């Protein structure tokens, strides 16, 4: 699983504990991961996408966004 981050490395990158990522995997939450056999790995770009998806737009900014038609 060369080129992938381990659970520990991914957790460090996200500022979480490895245990949190393990629980999230069981709950179907969190960033995408790859599982081959017993090994789990994370692609750095998937972690970046996950962080981006967690952004919350303040209500003040939402008021200025165009509404979909």
TrEMBL record:
Superkingdom: Bacteria
Pfam families recorded: HTH_17
Record-linked InterPro entries: DNA-bd_dom_put_sf, HTH_17
Residue ranges annotated for the Helix-turn-helix domain, each copy included: 4-54
Protein name: Transcriptional regulator, AlpA family
